Amino acid sequence: MTNINPSPLEPTEQPPTQREKKTSFWQKVFLTAIACVGLFFAVLGLIFPLRPVRSDVEKRDLAKAPVFTWEALWDGSYFSALSDWYADTYPARDPLLTAKSSLEALYGVRTTAVYNQSARTADEIPDADAVTSPAALMEDEDEAVDNEAAGESTLPEKSDEANQNDKNQDHLNGSDADDDTADPAAITAAPEASGSIYVADGRGFDLYYFSKENADAYASMINTVRSKLPENVTLYDIVVPNASGVLLAEDVQKSLGASDQEDAIGYIYSLLDPAVKSVPVFDALTAHRDEYIYFRTDHHWTQLGAYYAYEAFCKVKGIPPHNISEYETRTYDGFLGTFYAASGQAPALAASIDTITAYVPLSTNDMTFEAKDGSTVNWHIISDVSSYDAAQKYSCFAAGDQSLATIDNPALSDGTAALIIKESYGNAFVPFLTDHYDKVYVADYRHTNRNLLQFVKDNGISDVIFLNNDEFVTKERAKTMNGLFR
Question: Minimal CA–CA distance to 338: which of 395, 292, 379, 382?
Answer without folding.
Answer: 395
